[in-house]
Amino acid sequence: MKYCKAFIVAIVLLGGLAFSCTRKDPNLGVPDDRVVGTWRLFKRLVPQDSATLVKDIPNLPAQTLVFNGDGTFAATGEELEYYRSSRYYRMDSTLLGEWRLGFIINNLNPTFYQKFSQRGDTLVLLPSCEGDCGLYFVKTR
């Protein structure tokens, strides 16, 4: 009987420990006022053979990136499938003084970075690719 009680206590303690150790990802994002807001994709440059195809994106269904003021991130739309798994974003500078935008899935995966440019309400993401490519966004909010 003594061992039975000790076994039950051990089970309860281990069960409590397992539930108390569930890990929640910390907020890995670092917000930046330059990009906070909702951005709608309106044009995409796609390399095709030796030329660059300019693809105009219709307003509906909306293809958007949302950069929140707490460093969280969301992407919607078929054209932005590459970004949909990311939950956070951050701005980092390189040793050359260039800024790049990092997209973070969670704390187990490395941040993937892209160069970007921004003028007023227009944001251009410049992913690495062979040839000219880019995603052009206009700020909606």
Task: Explain the layout of strands and helices.
Elements: H1 2-20, E1 37-48, E2 51-56, E3 64-67, E4 73-76, E5 88-93, E6 99-104, E7 112-119, E8 122-126, E9 134-139
Antiparallel strand pairs: 1-2, 1-3, 1-9, 3-4, 5-6, 6-7, 7-8, 8-9
Molecular structure report:
By secondary structure, the chain is mainly beta. The chain has one domain: Lipocalin (Beta Barrel), CATH 2.40.128. The protein is built from 1 helix and 9 strands; from the N terminus they run αβββββββββ. Strands 1, 2, 3, 4, 5, 6, 7, 8 and 9 form a 9-stranded antiparallel sheet that branches. It starts with a helix and ends with a strand.
Low-pLDDT runs: none
Classify the secondary structure makeup into a structural class.
mainly beta
Number of helices, where a helix is a run of at least 4 consecutive DSSP H or I residues? 1
In total, the number of strands is: 9
CATH topology assignment? Lipocalin
The rough form would be described as globular
Give the SSE order as H and E letters. HEEEEEEEEE
The CATH architecture classification is Beta Barrel
Q: Sheet bearing the most strands, described?
A: 9 strands, antiparallel
Distance between the termini: 67 Å
CATH class: Mainly Beta
Range of strand content = 35-45%
**What do the pLDDT scores average to?**
84
Supply the number of structural domains. Answer: 1
The radius of gyration over CA amounts to 22 Å
| Portion in helices | 10-25%
Defining traits:
141 residues, mainly beta, Lipocalin, 9-stranded antiparallel β-sheet, 1 helix, globular
